[in-house]
Amino acid sequence: MMYTALSEVYDLFGEDDAAIRADYYCGFLPRGEGMDLGCGTGALTLELERRGYKVYGVDGSAGMLGKAAEKATKAGRVIKFVLGDASNPPALHKLDFVLAANDVYNYVPHINKAFRKIYELLSCGGVFAFDISSEYKLKNVLAGNTFSETKQDITYIWRNFRERDRLIIDFTVFSPCGETYIKTCETQTQYILKTDEVKNALTAAGFKDVKVYAFGKRTKPTEKTERIAFIAKK
After folding, report:
1. pTM > 0.85: yes or no
2. Eight-state DSSP code of residue 141
3. Left (φ > 0), alpha (ψ -120 to 50) or beta: where does 71 sit?
4. Residue 19 belongs to what domain range?
């Protein structure tokens, strides 16, 4: 289970980029009903709902979904949030789109099987959109490096270790509790994905029209692009 221990502080340290992501992806998503897969605390789900999309959020962390539900209630929005894994998302009914933003598939060990599941979820003409951290980013920007930040008396330390085709990520968070601090640790794995590997997996799953962009743009990624977006149509 990912981000179980860290759901309480995720929004504090996460990027406040839901509006930017919504601006970008709304240029590709058809109007209709869809899924925000790996929705986390629901910021992007809310942005899509505000823009007129009927969307429900799916995440593998009950803690994250709890925060997402609280956020939707506070905003006066009625959104369905469902516990589910990106490797095998819940199939409620046919969808017009599936969006999986911000590294969802870097955490999935077998993307071929996962992409076939998405293909089955979509209606004819449906769109599958997602972005990943690139091979360059994981190998050259994150691997071997440690990052740290303090906000509101909460400190996190983020260490990255490469093991062949994957990145091992160790998170440590120190949170105040009275006159002392609580230490919370969590370890995750991100898989290093090559652009052609992902594109081929989408084609093998049945997608006929696959576009690859540098995230935030409509141009092809370069060898040093750190985030890559994939837009596939059934």
Report:
1. yes
2. I
3. alpha
4. 10-133+194-233
